[in-house]
Each structure stands twice: as structure tokens, then as C-alpha cells.
Amino acid sequence: MRGRFPVSRPRRNRLSPAVRSLLAETALEPRHLVLPFFTVPGSGVKREIPSLPGLFHWSVDRLPELVEPALEAGVRAFLLFGLPSRKDERGSSADDPDQPVQRALGFLRGRYPQALLASDVCLCEYTSHGHCGCLAGQEVDNDATLERLASVALSHARAGAHVVAPSDMMDGRVGAIRYALDGAGFSSVGIWSYAAKFASAFYGPFRDAAGSAPEFGDRRGYQLPVSNPREALRDALMDEDEGADLLLVKPAGTSLDIAARLRGRTELPLGGYVVSGEYMMLRCAAGAGALDERRAVLEYHLAVRRAGCDVVVTYLAAEIARWLREEA
Ligand SMILES: [Zn+2]
């Protein structure tokens, strides 16, 4: 019956796997992954985090047990969070060079020159009230907080951070940090800004892990309402104007639309942060036998890349990198 269909029809699903893999539009590779972790005071500490089974609090001396296997699997970038030995109203331990983040930065920078070290800059892990800034009464004082954040960023740069990642969402923080870094000779230290950080229920397990749940009120005054994508885009583009080098969206899985829209509005690299609640969602569903863990995790993170994120910050970075290596 040749000639019966003179017009060739579009072909779907007939490409060989080899051709498909040649033409894959999006890839997830170990180099795209950033591994966040929590470092704590003391020595000899590797303690499982009750709200995040499978993840640990690490004292600085034991970090090689976390970092070396990750590097071996191909993860190059790390994002440091710290639990301080003391807290007060102003979060004064946040820029103390003897606290875990600063000590870890110095230790890792000297021992693993190939690692890219990014550090979280915020006050909520360091303040007695658990808010991300300094308070005036019951309210966060934006401008007083900027000065503190710039000082924290500077202390991280001095300790060895390649990149600082302000997560507080105060107005003007990127500009204030850029100004402080440049003024102190750290113009090569980058800023990854949490440009679109929604007030999300998915941060719950992290707050227990970081001991950073607010003592009163919540963070809706300075985090974005989930309902407002245009506000998120405006905020993110302001961070670009202030000098951010990369824009982060979080939680990644509930912000894919924001990443995709930002991709069309900026030439900066983008990052998606798969947060603690998303980690638990994947783990618990796999643990209950509802999902094939490896396939579900890889698909979830590939979707973040597909939405336009250059990097994916994820607690599963090392596992993912190992799986990708096995499949390569
Ligand atoms: Zn915070």
C-alpha cells in the first residue's frame, strides 16, 4: 500500500534509546549538585538528626567522613549551616571566627582545595528568639539586620567561603553584603541569594535540625506568600540589581514555575533548593514502599533542572551523584 500516506506523519516515541540519549534536552550530572550540611561545636560528633533521618550533625573534625565520599562521587559544591555554642538577641555568635561554620570553612578550604564552599548567611540559627534578624519590639528591624548580615558574610569570607548565601530575605541585604565584601578586598567572593524564598511548610524538619524555629510569630513578614509568583519575580530581579551572582528558589519542587519564569527574565545562573520537607517526602514515600526511591529521586531533581535551574541544592547530592555514576 505504498503511497497511501503521501504526507509523512510526525513520529513519536520511535527513536532508539541511543538517539534519545544523544538528544536529551536536560541532564542531571554530579557537577550540578550542591550538598548542604550542618556543623556543630565539639569534637567526635556524628549525630543523626531526629527530624531528618539519614542526615547528621557533624563536628568539624569528622567532616571528612561526609565530604570525601561526596567529592569521590563527583559532588564539588557544599553549603554550610552551623549550630553555634551560644545564642543571644543579636545573634552575636554568627560572626565569631571560633564558631563551627567559620572553623569548618577554614578546615575544608585547607584540606580540599578542589571543593567549592558556600555558606548560609542568616541569623535565625544564632538568635535566642529564632528570627532571621534583629528585633525592635516584636518586629524584625530590617536595616539593623543588614549591618549584622554584612558582618556575618565578611566573617565567612575571611574563614574561606568562596560564596556566601544570604537566606534571611531582608530588603537590601545583597547590596549591603556586596558592599562589605568589596570594601574588605573580597570582590571574588560570590553571592548566591535566596531570591525567591516562600513561607513554606516544607522547612519544618530543617528548623528542628538547625534549632531555628521562631520562638514567637512566624516569618511571613519577610518570606514570600506562596500565592504570589509576580512578587517572587520582582524580589529576585531586585537581588540581581544589587549584585547577586546566582538566584536560588526554594522549596524547589513547589517553585518550578518561578524557576522557569525567572529563566526567561535573567541571564544569571539559577539554583533550586530541595528543602528538608521535600527530602522527607521522598524518603518516607520510598521507605513505605510507595515509590522506587532511586527513580523518584532522580526524576524529582531532573525536573528542577528542566525548570531552568543550573544547580540543585539537595541533601541527597552524594547518593544522586553515586547513582548517576552507576548509570553512566
Ligand atoms: Zn533565617
From TrEMBL:
| Binding of Zn(2+), residues | C122, C124, C132
Annotated active site: K197, K250
**Known InterPro entries for this protein?**
ALAD, Aldolase_TIM
Tell me yes or no: is Electron transport among this UniProt entry's keywords: no
Specify one Pfam family: ALAD
The GO biological-process annotations, alphabetized, read as:
protoporphyrinogen IX biosynthetic process
Question: Can you provide one Gene Ontology molecular function annotated for this UniProt record?
Answer: porphobilinogen synthase activity
SUPFAM superfamilies found in the cross-reference section: Aldolase
> Which residues of the sequence carry a binding annotation for 5-aminolevulinate 2?
S276, Y315
Q: In which pathway does it act?
A: Porphyrin-containing compound metabolism; protoporphyrin-IX biosynthesis; coproporphyrinogen-III from 5-aminolevulinate: step 1/4
Catalytic activity line of the entry: 2 5-aminolevulinate = porphobilinogen + 2 H2O + H(+)
List the EC numbers from the record. 4.2.1.24
Source organism superkingdom: Bacteria
Keyword Lipid biosynthesis attached: no
Q: Name one GO cellular component term.
A: cytosol
Q: What are the UniProt keywords, alphabetically?
A: Heme biosynthesis, Lyase, Metal-binding, Porphyrin biosynthesis, Zinc
Give the binding site residues for 5-aminolevulinate 1: R207, R219
User: Family assignment?
Assistant: Belongs to the ALAD family.
What is the name attached to this protein's record? Answer: Delta-aminolevulinic acid dehydratase
Q: Which organism does this record belong to? A: Aminomonas paucivorans DSM 12260
